[in-house]
Amino acid sequence: MFTAQADITAAFVYAPLAENEHIYVEQPKGFVTDKNLVLKLNRSVYGIRQAPRNFFQYLVKKLESEGLTQSEHDPCLFIGPQTIVICYVDDLLFFSKSENDIDNIITNLHSNGVQIRKEGSAEGFLGVDVQRVSKGPVQQIKLTQHGLTKRVVEALGLCSNYSNAISTPAENAPLPKDINGAPAAGNFNYAAVVGMLLYLSGHSRPDIAFAVHQCARYTFNPTRRHELALIRIGRYLKGTMERGMIMTPTLDPRVDCYPDADFAGLYGHEDVQDPHCARSRTGYVILAFGCPVLWKSKLQTEIALSTMEAEYVAMSQACKDLFPVVDLIRDLSKTVGLPNDFKAKLHIKIHEDNVGALTLGKLEPRRMTPRSKHYAIKYHWFREKVADPSNRIELVKIDTKNQLGDIFTKGLTRVTFEHLRFLLMGWK
After folding, report:
1. At a CB cut-off of 8 Å and minimum separation 6, what does 418 contact?
2. Distance between CA 226 and CA 213 in Å, rounded?
3. Distance (Å, whole) CA 257 – CA 396
4. Which of 87, 130, 135, 213 sees the fewest Cβ atoms within 10 Å?
5. Residue numbers in the chain where pLDDT is lower than 70
6. Cα 410 from Cα 427, distance rounded (Å)
7. Has this prediction a pTM greater than 0.85?
8. DSSP bridge partners of 299
9. What is the pLDDT of residues 290-316, one digit of tens each?
10. Distance of alpha carbon 252 from alpha carbon 247, whole angstroms
11. DSSP for 50-110?
């Protein structure tokens, strides 16, 4: 497919204000005619709180006038008969089988008063470099963020030859609060580095997602131990500076979900009187056609009472993202040219390595047991979807050594980490 990115100049000043909305401003310097007069705004301007919302409503109308329909599952996605448009504030990303279709939409938007400017293909959109690589008959897509990775390494002061690379981004042990530990040295801006790493881990480097989330918990009160954990991530990135995510799409119409959990991972490493140390960690990744499209590492909001319960909660949380992803794929199937019977052939697999959670998820008839009743209302909801044969969702057992979600829940040994990184990102 052809791609293009476009930018809207001074985006927030196009949308007209509602008729019942009255906003007045002082006359700007150099244009004062009468000091007793003020100006009444007819359109939004930068600085008013409703400007972003007004602009988006304005943009929606303009895109709909070009035959694009706003998706029910993602308000920033617009789908047309031949074209797909993704909005990120004032940056637009276009996909189409014909470059002329993209050019026509951009030209029409410009003619209708939108100062939109085409800026090339999708490569480099929002700082993510997209490369298409041919490996024999197989077509691959490589996502990298070399510029951002280099900025992180520089911010941590790891540019010299005296800082060595390391093979994993996190230690095997969890990262606790370290209340009585040494104070932070303050040699770098902790919050700024965490912000850059969150953007990096969310777009092209899922291999550091767990390590980054651990450090992000202490953004407002880091200690020296937390700084060293960030430096470790930087040392890992220094050794993998040119690396990213290599996606190899398959022709098999399937969506795979790999949920996992680390039961009470912080217990024993923090104050046992603090209930937060007993919280488990959820990690999961969703693959569409063999390509990672969404991943997450986060602490669970409730305290699980067993490994099975923690795994079951992780599976339920993963389904909250899985089902909308499946709906999006079905919406996009016609525009990207998939066969008419694609929706009927699409099948979904949830890979679970805990036998107890797998059994409870497939339990028929669907019922609550005395041991599962206390979390029934919040987490049993997804079983109705799984039980419906029309959804083609299957819960399957997977060996723990191939559970991709494991890389998002805990620090791993080098051998295990590199094995899962290869399955997830396509390189060792």
Report:
1. 167, 428
2. 12
3. 10
4. 135
5. 364-377
6. 20
7. yes
8. 281
9. 999 999 999 998 899 899 999 999 999
10. 14
11. THHHHHHHHHHHHHHTTT-EE-SS-TTEEE-SSEEEEEETTEEEEEES-HHHHHHHHHHHH
